[in-house]
Amino acid sequence: MAAVQTFKATAHLQNGVQVKTASRQFELIIDEPKSLGGTDTGMNPVEALLASLGACQAIVARVYAPKFDVKLEDFRVEVEGDIDLDGFFNRSDVRPGYSDIRYTFYVKTGSPQEKVEEFVEFLESKCPVGDTIANPVNLKLDRIVIES
Fold first, then answer.
1. Global pTM value
2. Which H/E stretch holds residue 23?
3. CA distance 28 to 9
4. For residue 142, what are the CA distances in angstroms to 5, 65, 129, 145, 146?
């Protein structure tokens, strides 16, 4: 397998602000809560981003725990972030995205604290979603296709 792998997803606007997203054979409905003009049929995009971060950290934890001799009886991540909605609604010059994201790892294990801390430091450095959020990425519009 090549070292560089391309992942793909589609997002298809439905009624209102509901969006049907798909990747491979999986679909996920993204929407907004009623308070933000949606019908509340799914997570909104920024909640899905937080969920993706937590899921990525959990997967990395599962993959690397044995290498650090940390036995995971249970592993859970709680993620929260702060967004100033004035940025999205164009009411001020603040950024429209998250200003801060915080997460807490709940690790159920009999392994010593030093091993767990070493393991957690490593897993934070290997999470692709965390890396993508924390560091600039080359994000660009590829093309616009006008369909008739």
1. 0.93
2. strand 19-23
3. 11
4. 18, 38, 21, 10, 13
What DSSP character marks residue 40?
-
Q: State phi, psi for 115 to the nearest 5 degrees.
A: -65, -40
Q: pLDDT tens for residues 99-110?
A: 999 999 999 999
Please name the amino acid found at residue 35. Answer: S
Q: Which residues, 6+ apart, have CB-to-CB distance to 70 below 8 Å? A: 107, 109, 111, 115, 116, 119
Residues near 111 by Cβ (< 8 Å), separated by ≥ 6?
Answer: 69, 70, 71, 119
* Tokens standing for residue 46: 């920024």
pLDDT in tens, 31-78: 999 999 999 999 999 999 999 999 999 999 999 999 999 999 999 999
